[in-house]
Design goal:
By secondary structure, this protein is α/β, with parallel strands linked by helices. It has a single domain, classed as Nucleotidyltransferase, domain 5 (2-Layer Sandwich). It has three helices and five strands, in the order βαββααββ. Strands 3-2-1-5-4 form a five-stranded mixed beta sheet. Helix 2 crosses helix 3.
Length: 109
């Protein structure tokens, strides 16, 4: 199973998230089975998201490879890893579009 984790800014459209998702899939040569975002982002019109709890995001952060300018781990990577489950492997580190980010992780089984 391939999980895509996404991060996005307020006001970002579903189309912008889909664009960064398709770009990530193209770069990795993979197709996401599930799209995950942090729970605090909430649901988004036109896009079905698996919402990842703050605790699950925090638990996945040590496996993230990308750090933001302020030193925090990538939310997109943490969501991808959490959605893919225990032992997941990051297949595509965080990529960024102007208002959305995406990372891909693969489940261990």
């Amino acid at each position: 199973m391939i999980a895509a984790g996404v991060g996005f800014r307020r006001g970002c459209s579903a189309e912008e998230i889909l664009a960064v998702l398709r770009d990530a899939e193209l770069q990795a040569g993979l197709r996401a089975d599930v799209v995950a975002a942090p729970a605090f982002k909430g649901a988004m019109d036109g896009l079905s998201l698996v919402l990842i709890s703050d605790a699950a995001v925090q638990a996945a952060q040590p496996a993230c490879v990308t750090r933001m300018r302020d030193g925090r781990p990538s939310v997109a990577e943490a969501c991808a890893l959490a959605a893919a489950g225990n032992g997941a492997v990051l297949r595509l580190p965080r990529i960024a579009h102007p208002r959305a980010t995406c990372a891909l992780a693969e489940s261990a089984s």
